[in-house]
Amino acid sequence: MYTERLKKLVSVIPANATLIFSPENLYYFSGFTGGEGLLFVDKSKLLLFTDSRYTVQAREEAPDFEVIDTAKLSVSEFLKQQGDKAYGIEDDYVTFAKYASLKKLAPKSVFSPVSSHIDKIRMIKDTLELEYIKKAAQISDSAFSYILDKIQAGKTEREISLDLEYFMLRQGADGLSFDTICASGVRSCMPHGVATDKVIEKGDFLTLDFGCKYRGYCSDMTRTVVVGKATDKQKEIYDTVLTAQKASLSKICAGVNTKDVDAAARDIITTAGYGENFGHGLGHSLGLKVHEAPSCSPRSTDILKENMMMTVEPGIYIDGFGGVRTEDLVCVTADGYENFTTSQKELIEL
Fold first, then answer.
1. How far apart are CA 201 and CA 227, in angstroms?
2. Which residues of 331-343 are buried (b: 16+ CB within 10 A; e: fewer)?
3. What local confidence, expressed as pLDDT, does residue 57 receive?
4. Domain count, the chain
5. For residue range 221-271, what is the model confidence (pLDDT) as tens digits?
6. Which of 3, 99, 164, 189 gives the lowest tally of CB atoms within 10 Å of its CB?
7. What confidence score (pLDDT) does residue 2 get?
């Protein structure tokens, strides 16, 4: 598996060698989960530099690589030994200070940006990645079913958020995909309203946007419920969002432009009179990070391909009133999609 990824890396990078620093790409290309180290990849050498805290772990997790203890050979000394080369570096991760230090070590070497090339490799998920993402999504679905019995007026957003997160960890998650969004009442108009000490009240919208990691891979889902009985306006807004989401889901298929998927939902929300209340893009891919390429937005031009992941999450947000978002996580197939999110989407009144 890792060998195939490395072959792709070597084939697309326009440089003599690639230096990988980011924890996600360390893991993606080698299997090493230590998070601190450097991969040196060229056509003849696969080296993993790390310190003595991780060398045993690195040899176990990254058998394709020769593990170098930096106490015996530092990255600095190694690069000095290499002479002048053209290196690919992760321009979306390497800081200016790190770049300056590299240039100081190898002043005649050329360091070129390669993040876009790596992103294209990671866009298409392999079988193991899909297995891990699906498992993370299953944990999230279970967490939503669990938390429905805990939501009630009088509890705070923070109480609900912590209970939800603890359940996911108990079910085998190795972390959270992002800070849980738990926003009730008028606060639900904030798309990224993380939990506060606000008390949930009868009649509130409650939006929960959350996810977990399994073997490093993320899930992401959103559901909005009403605590108590929904008003006619709440039902109208909820139904509009759900109709929009279903319309965009029906467009998903390999070969479709992501802009068109976004438009399917956006046109319905705009026709209903809420176009100005849907300010963000329809969705994004995910994997080792919760936000990865490609994305679905009015400005995106990516073409969906088989085994890409995509969130589908239209919303309507009205300042002073509240908001609704419904989000599923889907895998693109040759003739449609597989929905990894199975939780109920029809309006739930608690």
1. 7
2. bbeeeebeebbeb
3. 97
4. 2
5. 999 999 999 999 999 999 999 999 999 999 999 999 999 999 999 999 999
6. 3
7. 72
Can you give the CATH number for the domain in which 185 is found? 3.90.230.10
Cβ neighbourhood burial of 166 (10 Å; 0-12, 13-18, 19+): exposed
CB burial string 216-248: b at 16+ within 10 A, e below: bbbbbbbbbbbbeebeeebeebbebbbebbbbb
Q: Which residues pair with 310 in a beta bridge?
A: 330
Degrees to nearest 5, angle at CA 6 with 302 and 73: 130
* Cβ-based neighbour number of residue 290 at 10 Å: 18
Q: How many residues does the chain have?
A: 350
Backbone angles phi, psi at 225, to 5 degrees: -125, 170
Question: Of 143, 144, 128, 150, nearest to 173 (Cα)?
Answer: 143
Given this model, what pLDDT does residue 3 score? Answer: 84
Q: Would you say residue 12 has pLDDT above 90? A: no
Report yes or no on whether pTM surpasses 0.85: yes
C-alpha span between 220 and 176 (Å, rounded) = 10
Instruction: Dump pLDDT digits (tens) for 115-158.
Output: 999 999 999 999 999 999 999 999 999 999 999 999 999 999 99
Q: With a cut of 90, say whether residue 174 has pLDDT above it.
A: yes
Domain edge (last residue) among 105, 123, 141: 123
Looking at residue 156, its pLDDT comes to 98
Q: Torsion angle, CA of 138/139/141/144, rounded to 10 degrees?
A: 180
SS3 assignment for 122-159? HHCCCHHHHHHHHHHHHHHHHHHHHHHCCCCCCCEHHH
Confidence band of 274 (pLDDT split at 50, 70, 90): very high
CA distance 21 to 93: 8
Identify the domain containing residue 90 by its residue range: 2-123
- Among 92, 123, 154, where does a domain finish? 123
